[in-house]
Fold this protein.
Amino acid sequence: MSSKLSDYDYPLPKNLIAQRPLPRRDDSRMMLLHRDSHTIEHRNFRELKTFLHEGDLLVLNDTRVLAARLFSDDGAIEFLFLEKLEPARWKCLVKPGRKMRIGTTSKIGNVILLVEEVLLGGERIVSLNEDVDLYACGSMPLPPYIARQSDREDELRYQTVFARTPGAIAAPTAGLHFTPENLNELPHAFVTLHVGPGTFRPVQSENIFEHQMHPERFSISAAAAGKINDARRIVAVGTTTVRVLESARREQGKVIAQIGSTDIFIHPPYRFQSVDLLFTNFHLPKSTLLMLVSAFAGREFVLRAYAEGIREQYRFYSYGDCMLIL
């Protein structure tokens, strides 16, 4: 166990950061990590079902990514609209922030935006001179390590095939590998966690225990709770699903239907209460997501697996390959 941020670092060649998805969602390679023996295998995503047992349940995050990225008419300001607070009033991120102080205005199309407030996290509260559907003209908010503008392909591929509940500004990327066909072959249930800007927020302190996660909204339906409680083993698809399951309220040991928010920060040492297997993508160095995976499989084992993934030329991050941790 380590609380040092530098102990969650690893070198990654830039050419291994996937800039585009593969032609087929389910063509990805899948690294298999055996926690009991600390051994590694190299497989394909389509083999996932062969490692599941009777009574296993995949739990996936069905949040839908909003086309929330827009630019001012003069191209000087980038806006990422996070949440509609009320008609014609939004919470958003802006870049560069120094150009959008309190009282400053900007324009997107025929809409004038006024900065009313700057929050502690740097978000802006902006009012609009008319209530419009900003997402109708926005683009997909690709993560910063994808070094290009989003396009029509991303509107389809930076979204899971089962996305149905709008509210995220980033995709739950472990779910991007699934097609309707292979998902139909697997017992599954959906929960919802709306991925917020905190997913890209770096850990600033060398002591990771000092890091504070931003709260994110989640929900579990009664139908999903019933399936989760009946399952023999839970296979969490993605770190966002892990955070929902590990934050869920229980009554008499059973997960209940609920709506809430979570700021849980899972890092070593952590004892998992709900998750038995983890299906996930490869994550950034020094990220809270890498720390979560390290809590599940052990930091040294995970970093050894990442080093092997680099040697084997795996594709990393959102549009990259995946791993299954048994």
About this structure: The mean pLDDT is 94. The chain has two domains: 5-65+142-325, 69-137. Residues 299-311 form the longest helix (13 residues).
